[in-house]
Specification:
Growth Hormone, Chain: A; 20 helices
Length: about 450
């Protein structure tokens, strides 16, 4: 199939849509207390509003990638973008907390489907792929770290409903552009779609994401002494959800072994660069979540910053990520995956160690410097992890590979929420120090992954 769409159009559409979907993942963080207060909600509602977007956003991508292979990626992308735009428009008018959670859940479903757009780049752009993927992933990162900042400003000046209204018209314009500009990709799926595998996967990993969030919330609640009853209830819910995850995983495993055309092509995990790219992007997201979630929390609860001041502290990280993410793609095209991969993870190690040692009493200049360092570190591995994971798979598996890659990235956010949430005591500086040190250790693992890339390169040469 001849492709007459310019690379600029493909990258622009997919990057803007991806920015919006990731922006919405964190845009409620700062105005969350105002939202819950407006609806006279309680402690559970804080958790529900946050995870209502995160759950469908995280788990839908592998299924959507496979569905796009079978039904057409352009069609699936437009459905997701349209759902995101509509629910964004209506969420600001929600009459109660239950309606808001329901609309935010559907918005997260649309946002997760949007990320299937990466396949338009990996399947159609064969020259300067690193630059294209680096730009797309810079949009992903900048949307993630800009969410709390944008949400804080909008809610402060125009009220919390504006955090939903602002994304709706932009998404609508991108939908119109996409409908006229994007061409459908050749369909690689054959036969029927594996609905049993898809359902068991969505149920299992939805339960896991919520369980991780509930575990972190339970530990934090009980440790802080706010409400032992709430903490115990959250802990019980987490155990039940872990059980549901195990059951769903067992059904998925059995289905993979017996279904003639199962949901996942497990042969992808025999491709070393694909596996390394997935683990690498998981670790990048762990670092992103640690910085964007716990830096502003420490500044507010320990350092005495206001919500807007804490949000402003992330601005240098966001700006740096946008610039360096694109440059990192160019660097990957010039030097290959290894150099920017090692540079990025090494810089993140240094940045998180500095955050752990300096604490909330850090001067504004020093904090800005560290945020710039972290922005550089987070942005540099974006392109090489994507290139490693997505350019070494068969062309017919591009959609599935893209879905699994994005799933690995967003599971970094969910796992971090559970693990770091269990460590967190919001008013205790020592807990933030521990979180940043553990994050630094995870980034060290990211550095060591490059050994596998080097071995792969040597094996190809000989």
């Amino acid at each position: 199939m001849k492709n007459d769409v310019s690379p600029f159009t493909i990258v622009a559409i997919t990057s803007i849509a991806t920015f919006l979907s990731n922006l919405s993942a964190g845009i409620v963080n700062v105005p969350l207390p105002k939202i819950v207060q407006a609806f006279h909600g309680g402690s559970f509602d804080l958790v529900y509003v946050v995870i209502s977007y995160l759950v469908p956003y995280a788990v839908v991508m592998p299924v959507v990638g496979k569905l796009g292979d079978a039904c057409g990626h352009r069609r699936i992308f437009l459905w997701g973008l349209g759902l995101y735009a509509l629910t964004s428009a209506f969420a600001g008018y929600a009459p109660n907390i239950a309606s808001l959670v329901a609309l935010h859940t559907l918005q997260g479903l649309g946002g997760g489907i949007i990320l299937v757009s990466i396949v338009f780049i990996s399947a159609q752009i064969r020259e300067r792929t690193g630059l294209a993927l680096g730009t797309w992933r810079a949009a992903l990162l900048s949307g993630t770290v800009a969410g709390p900042v944008v949400g804080g400003y909008l809610s402060a000046y125009w009220g919390w409903p504006s955090i939903f209204w602002v994304t709706a018209p932009i998404a609508a314009l991108v939908w119109i552009w996409s409908a006229f500009a994007l061409e459908e990709l050749p369909r690689s799926g054959e036969g029927r779609f594996d609905w049993v595998g898809s359902l068991s996967f969505v149920v299992a990993f939805s339960a896991l994401v919520v369980a991780l969030a509930a575990s972190g919330s339970a530990m934090d609640t009980m440790a802080s002494g706010l409400s032992k009853a709430i903490g115990a209830t959250m802990g019980t819910m987490a155990l039940m959800l872990y059980g549901l995850f195990i059951v769903g995983l067992a059904v998925l495993w059995f289905n993979q072994r017996t279904e003639k055309q199962p949901l996942f092509d497990m042969s992808l995990y025999r491709i070393r660069p694909f596996v390394l790219g997935n683990v690498g992007t998981f670790l990048v997201c762990v670092g992103m979540f640690s910085a964007m979630m716990f830096v502003p929390l420490e500044l507010q609860y320990v350092g005495g910053y206001s919500a807007l001041q804490a949000s402003n502290a992330l601005l240098p990280l966001a700006v740096t990520a946008i610039v360096v993410g694109v440059w990192g793609g160019w660097l990957t095209d010039r030097l290959g995956e290894v150099t920017p991969w090692v540079m990025g993870f090494t810089i993140m190690v240094a940045g998180f160690i500095l955050l752990a040692l300096l604490g909330p009493s850090i001067s504004p200049l020093a904090l800005t410097t560290i945020m710039v360092i972290e922005g550089i570190g987070m942005a540099l591995p974006l392109a090489p992890t994507a290139v490693s994971a997505l350019t070494h798979v068969p062309e017919g598996s591009a959609g599935e590979a893209g879905g699994l890659f994005n799933f690995a990235h967003n599971m970094g956010r969910a796992v971090s929420l559970g693990v770091f949430g269990a460590m967190l005591q919001v008013t205790k500086p020592a807990s933030y120090t521990l979180i940043f040190l553990v994050t630094a250790a995870a980034m060290v693992v990211g550095v060591t992954l490059v050994v596998g890339l080097i071995r792969q390169r040597v094996a190809v040469q000989y």
